[in-house]
Design a protein that fits this description.
The chain is an alpha+beta fold. The protein is built from 11 helices and 21 strands. The protein has 5 domains: 92 residues, no CATH class; 54 residues, Ubiquitin-like (UB roll) (Roll), CATH 3.10.20; 109 residues, no CATH class; 74 residues, Single Sheet (Resuscitation-promoting factor rpfb fold); 81 residues, Lysozyme, CATH 1.10.530.10. It has a 7-stranded mixed β-sheet with strand order 6-5-7-12-13-10-11. A 4-stranded mixed β-sheet has the order 2-1-4-3. Keywords: Hydrolase, Membrane, Signal, Transmembrane, Transmembrane helix. This is Transglycosylase family protein.
């Protein structure tokens, strides 16, 4: 029924607050406002919803808002329909309608407007909430909880001022979408020097400890280790911490010991916890077991000196002298061996000498033994003097005493006698200073046979001649001991 036709009188029940509601509708306007039929259809649907508890069919969001806004604000084209106590004529109904005021706005209109705005606010809040996220960011083991509106991993890292390099590990990847409750892990790569199968090489690793780095790099058939450098004060240093809260195996001095290390520990700190000390020459290498447990191998190295000696035999030298008879000799300089002294430095690894280096050599020359050999010819005994002849003249006669007979002993005997008395030394003097030369003359006896000066100052030939003269005069008793030894008397 059109709202612009008169309402026919009908029997009506007693008016109540629920039935005396104002139904406001939009009049058809030239500018395209909602038609009366559309408004009535909306009201009817709302009434049905109120009675059945079902929700009214929903149009587009803009349509709903526009419809409720139009019904909520009456304008010049809005008419109101009232319930009356009785059915009057059309003119009376029109007059009453013209003079009457609306009692109150439809509750359905108010509820519809509130629902429309709740839909707008609720939809925006849901979008806002879905953009806001709380995540955990783990950077090299340090975890922080951050809130962000970023849509991907790269955005939240940029927000937190976390820069990454091409070798860094980032999980999830930078271009992955970020959702609330995500965990983002960043491991900064570091270039570490390894020894791979005996050759030094630099490799990138995101491990946070040396044990993990070795375990990550190690592969089948590869010998991997990290050799610690030594600081000026003797500390052992690595480019990474050795371990964080875990066991470390120490292999040193022929034994293997496992020590539980507390907290994050450098190599030097782990050695302190294990009670181990290093000398300046010791070397330290880090390997790892398959489970990542670091193995610290300490090689004891030292350098110790050693000295060796080698004798140098002396030479024997003979030189001639006419102070001795042929066949006679004497040692005038005792020989002494020399020595070669060599000083070495020995490199000792775990108690075993692995290399030796000569530092210096010193030589003490030998002293030659010098022996003098006689070249003097032995004297020959002078012939015996001719016997003196006697005669008588003028009836008288006389006789003279013959000279003592000359010695007829051969030269070998005199050489043997001289050897026995003086060792064949013509210049020797007895310890008491009384006897001289080859035959140990006393000065008085020497002078008695025509000698002058000291016997030890005379030549060997003269000494022998005087001895022969003494023997011829006095016999072998002048040399009692040696003559007996030689069987001369």
């Amino acid at each position: 029924m059109s709202l612009f036709s008169k309402k026919q009188p009908e029997p009506t029940p007693e008016p109540t607050d629920e039935t005396a509601e104002i139904e406001a509708t939009s009049a058809v306007e030239p500018d395209g406002a909602a038609s009366v039929g559309e408004a009535s259809s909306a009201d009817a649907a709302a009434d049905a919803a109120d009675e059945t508890g079902a929700e009214a069919p929903a149009g587009s969001f803009d349509d709903v808002v526009a419809g409720y806004a139009a019904s909520a604000t009456p304008d010049a084209g809005t008419t109101a329909e009232f319930d009356t106590d009785d059915a009057g004529s059309g003119s009376e109904h029109d007059a009453a309608a013209a003079g009457a005021k609306p009692r109150r706005r439809s509750r359905r209109a108010i509820i519809g407007i509130a629902a429309a705005f709740a839909l707008v606010v609720g939809t925006g809040g849901a979008v806002f909430a879905s953009a806001h996220k709380t995540i955990d960011v783990d950077v090299n083991g340090e975890i922080r909880t951050v809130t962000t509106y970023s849509g991907d991993i790269a955005g939240v890292l940029e927000q937190e001022g976390i820069t990454t390099g091409e070798h860094d590990l980032i999980v999830p990847s930078l271009d992955e979408a970020l959702v609330d409750g995500s965990d983002v892990v960043v491991r900064t790569a570091q270039e570490v020097t390894f020894e791979v199968n005996g050759e030094t090489t630099d490799l990138w690793t995101t491990a946070t400890t040396a044990g993990q780095a070795v375990a990550d790099v190690a592969g089948a058939g590869r010998d991997i280790q990290i050799t610690a450098s030594r600081s000026v004060d003797g500390r052992a240093e690595l480019e990474l911490p050795l371990v964080t809260d875990g066991p470390v195996v120490f292999e040193v001095d022929g034994a293997s010991t496992t020590v539980e290390i507390e907290g994050e520990a450098t190599l030097d700190e782990a050695l302190v916890q294990a009670g181990l000390t290093l000398s300046l020459q010791d070397t330290v290498a880090v390997t790892a077991r398959e489970d990542g447990t670091p193995v610290v191998t300490i090689t004891r190295r030292s350098y110790e000196p050693s000295v060796t000696t080698a004798p140098i035999a002396f030479e024997s030298v003979e030189r001639e002298t006419d102070d001795l008879y042929v066949g006679q000799s004497r040692v005038v300089q005792e020989g002494a061996d020399g020595v070669t002294t060599s000083t070495f430095t020995n490199q000792i690894v775990d108690g075993v000498v692995v290399s030796t280096k000569l530092l210096r050599t010193e030589v003490t020359d030998a002293v030659a033994e010098i022996t003098e050999v006689g070249t003097a010819e032995r004297p020959v005994a002078p012939p015996a003097p001719a016997p003196s002849s006697g005669g008588s003249s003028g009836g008288s006669s006389g006789s003279t005493e013959p000279d003592p007979p000359a010695s007829t002993v051969g030269g070998d005997v005199w050489a043997a006698l001289a050897q026995c008395e003086s060792g064949g030394n013509p210049t020797i003097v007895s310890s008491n200073g009384l006897y001289h030369g080859l035959y140990q003359f006393s000065v008085g006896t020497w002078q008695s046979v025509g000698g002058s000066g000291l016997p030890s100052q005379a030549s060997p030939a003269e000494q022998t001649q005087r001895a022969q003269a003494l023997q011829a005069r006095s016999g072998w008793g002048q040399w009692p001991h040696c003559s007996s030894v030689l069987g001369l008397r």
